Amino acid sequence: MRAEILDFLRQNQGKYVSGEEISRELNVSRTAVWKHIRALKQDGYQIEAHTRAGYCLRGTTGRLLPEEIKAVLTTKVMGQEIYYYPQIGSTNNEAKKLAAGGCPEGTIVVAETQNTGRGRLARGWFSPYGKGIWMSVVLRPPFSPLEASKCTLMAAVAVNRVIRQVAGVYSGIKWPNDILFQGRKLVGILTEMSAEMDAINYVVIGMGINVNIEEREFPGEIAATATSLLAVSGREIDRRMFLAAILKELETAYHLVQTGGFTSILDDWRSQSITLGKNVDVIGPDHRYSGLAIDIDNEGALLVKTAQGVRKVLAGDVSIRPVV
Ligand code: BTX
After folding, report:
1. What are the chain's domains?
2. According to the annotation, is 90 in a ligand binding site?
3. N or C: which end of the chain has fewer CB within 10 A?
4. What does this protein do (predicted)?
């Protein structure tokens, strides 16, 4: 009922509607209307109340509340179920629990802040309150577990497209899971999976997108390597519109993959990559070498040309050498 009352106020945004009118239109008691309005105000909605005129919605909350996202969502699968948390440990952990419990494909977990946001190899992810999109999406892809790592490439292509189109920031993808602008990280993607020998139970794609973080807010250890859309473009971005655009783009890309395989996504990835054609250092648990990043293969592995021949990088850290 809360969502319906909010919808009704939205349809009449800027105008007063009486409690009686809401109660009549939505077939709910006046007391219930009053209680729901109070809850909406507590959530941060700017609702003016006037004894005679009634209620008037002046502004929405800047939070990523499910009803806010749903009001602008145009997808069929992605984000049809939304779990929202003002604060959480890690959205990926929560999404994995929900996925193991059988939640439908496309379910998302979104939080205003994460206390223990994770990157790869148990690294931390800085997730300040209300300033980014800290979100995880549950997929149940019909393909083999060997293909799961390509979900990271798919998500990177989708997010990078939205950054370019909506924020107007000409970012690029660094293999395998980062989106950078002028060498600084705007986005990190963490894909995790649960699978049997030949089938995937679920894939969770976690995205950390630095949206409205001011340059000076980044902690010292990442101050020189991280950036945000606000810092780069100089303007604040409506996070819910941005999130809805990402889910739409992800849905399109996922549909494409399911119907035609990863080929077109890999081509898009190549054209948006900032790794290919660069000299890179590859650092793994038991190796370290340098070479020229020449391509990604059909598995999504990075191909690096070294003095000893072409080496295939499936996992590990790749750093791009600055041009001197
Ligand atoms: P990664 O291992 O490639 O990058 C992690 C590294 O990035 C950190 O060690 C740190 O140096 C740097 N870093 C930390 N926070 C930020 C930030 N906000 N901006 C730029 N650089 C940063 C990348 O892992 C994958 C990150 C995924 C994060 C999402 S958020 C939603 C979901 N839930 C969760 O716990 N993780 C994912």
Report:
1. 1-59 (1.10.10.10), 66-272 (3.30.930.10), 278-320 (2.30.30.100)
2. yes
3. C
4. Acts both as a biotin--[acetyl-CoA-carboxylase] ligase and a repressor.
